[in-house]
Amino acid sequence: MNWQKIDRNSRIQQQGKYNNWKEQIAKDCFHRCVYCSIHESPWGGIDNFHIDHFKPKSKFSELTNVIYNLYYSCPICNRFKSDDWQNDCIANLDVIGYPDPSEHDFQKLFEIDMTTFKLKGNFKSSRYVINRLYLNRPQLILERREFFLNKKAEILISEFRDLVTQKNLNRGFLKKYIELSMDLSLLILKRNEISPYRLVDIRK
User: Fold this and answer.
1) pTM score, two decimals?
2) What ranges do the domains of the chain cover?
């Protein structure tokens, strides 16, 4: 998906308290949840996203206002993570714990099954993150499916323009175009049926 490694060197420590730095933290994290990679826009923007203390302030109070310990998170991932902390895994991803988004490229932590659009973890730590943060919740599976369908649509639209210019349309291409349009329409309808999470999951 759209995970991007956070540039630790470009982060500037501010004065005061962390809850006044939300705009900077959002920008540092590309306005996306560092865990599930969903953009803030479907949630109504910055006001509805959270500041995540990577190492929980309940256990590492000295890091409460340290910019390097603060990341941008969607409310669901932040709620699932809560004050959970198992192990440091900066050097070794084969432990139960959370990889630091400024130390690890999350694109390499996961693979997406292109049949089910579910995430699979490449390391023990990434498998833990998937389970703990419920990264295969229905909403995120839908987001991934939509992301890849839109990529396919971009390619087909480009091909369509080329064929129109050449006046060389064929039935095979039109069939693919219609099938993709139907897939996207069904996906939009399905979005209204999906709940982001179940209370039984968030309370586990």
Assistant:
1) 0.79
2) 8-135, 139-202
